[in-house]
Amino acid sequence: MNLKPAVAKNALQSGVYLIGAGPGAFDLITVRGAHILGKANVVFCDALVDPKMLEWCPQAEIIFVGKRCGKYSTAQQFINRQLVLATKNHDIIVRLKGGDPFIFGRANEEIDALKSANIYFEVVPGITAALAACAELKQPPTARNISRTLKITTLPSHLNYEGQDTQIYYMGREELPQIALEMIAQGYPLSTPVCLVESVSLPHQRSFGTCLGELLHFQQEEVFHEKNPVIVLIGEVYSNVVHDLTPLIPLMEYRIRTSSAN
Amino acid sequence: MNLKPAVAKNALQSGVYLIGAGPGAFDLITVRGAHILGKANVVFCDALVDPKMLEWCPQAEIIFVGKRCGKYSTAQQFINRQLVLATKNHDIIVRLKGGDPFIFGRANEEIDALKSANIYFEVVPGITAALAACAELKQPPTARNISRTLKITTLPSHLNYEGQDTQIYYMGREELPQIALEMIAQGYPLSTPVCLVESVSLPHQRSFGTCLGELLHFQQEEVFHEKNPVIVLIGEVYSNVVHDLTPLIPLMEYRIRTSSAN
Q: Which of A11, A205, B152, B199 is buried deepest, with most CB atoms within 10 A?
């Protein structure tokens, strides 16, 4: 792949670039993000970023900074300090985050640290996992006569019933029965379609179809791999696609049957 | 700019590629999107896409298909038919849409037409204008102690008060006083910060800061250029940045004064 746009961007200003790596696939980063990675001296990289993404910056020193889905790192203050310190010795510093750097990425704290230290920074947006999952399912989250609003959240209590809006949930794999319970209590029918997309856009991506009623009894550890992120898409708009996906409950029953047979 | 990832994508399958161009800047398309544009035989391009974006596909036949912000096209069925017909004579057909193809882009109708005609298609997500605006403002739409949910909509009645969620409104330039009225009626304080970003990521981008109380009396035609899209970002989370932006109301008063002086 050899991309030569007709107009080259001016030389990069020294500073910190918060770049969204996108959902995982190495070519779902923006052209700008890949270009800046290619100029970086040092890259502070989230554990969630796929290693292939680092082929955009073979010249850079890579510093992995923890944080796997669902597990808080105690090191956020350490990362903030490291970013600021790096500007003493380096010209172009990249903070590479999975998805979009501003969607549930704790960028606020890093930005506050950079502002306090009077360091120049830019933000390069990335494809957030929710929209990448929609693209993979080939189903827009809104549709004229079904849903005109999309809500993106990490809190089950923020999912609620308003004219059947579509709701997309991040970091929800351990709370799936609770999510279903909250939504049913708020008026969503048991039959409301739910799509679950694991490791969006990566070669090991898997998509499952279910409904809120089934999700009540779902044990995520039976199906999902421990370290893979899962995006949960809920709404009537998915009725078109949910039946084309791997059914969730039969899979669980199959796994339970085979594991008790062993 | 010369991007050579270490692993090239396999040859493209014949069919239609719905590609998100991103918010406007030519390098905020994904690497995958730019790569496919470079292989396209024909590109059906939204009027909202910046002409510079077409430098990614000098080899392709370009067909502009109307639709400017806020103005419906009666030609959606014509576009659907053209996409299907193009597959008779061409190998790689691109449908290039501003932002993300699935956020308020009427992709449903095009997808239905492609499915009915049994045509292979893929969707390449793009940076949606809301998240590009957040990157430009350098302010994440969610923050741990202020807002944990982001709502994206085109309907004023869908904006509402739930623990001060952040709300981002598309295609709202003609409805700004109505948006303010609905939100104030639902409990938002008059002082709730509002950011308005016109032509996100393009050289003529402008950002304005205001609050719901001021927005009640705002006449958009005094400030915004007729054809430019405007993203409206509303929520307490913007209190950090709103005062650094051009104030909206003093600008209106200045314009009114100077135009009556003429």
A: B152
> Which pLDDT tens digit goes with each residue over B202-261?
999 999 999 999 999 888 888 898 889 999 999 999 998 998 999 987 655 555 555 554
* Per-residue H/E/C for A239-260: HHCHHHCEEHHHHHHHHHHHHH
**Burial (CB count <10 Å: 0-12, 13-18, 19+), residue B1:** middle
What CA dihedral angle connects B55, A32, B4 and B121, to 10 degrees? -60
* A158 lies within 8 A of chain B by CB: yes
Report helix, strand or coil for A47. coil
Contact criterion met (CB below 8 Å) for B147 and B236: yes
pTM: 0.90
C-alpha dist (Å) from residue B123 to A9, A113, A140: 27, 37, 10
Active site residues of A: 46, 67, 171
Annotated catalytic residue B252: no
Ramachandran region, residue A118 (left: φ > 0; alpha: ψ -120 to 50; beta: rest): left
ipTM for the predicted complex comes to: 0.89
Chain A segment 187-246 residues within 8 A of B by beta carbon are none
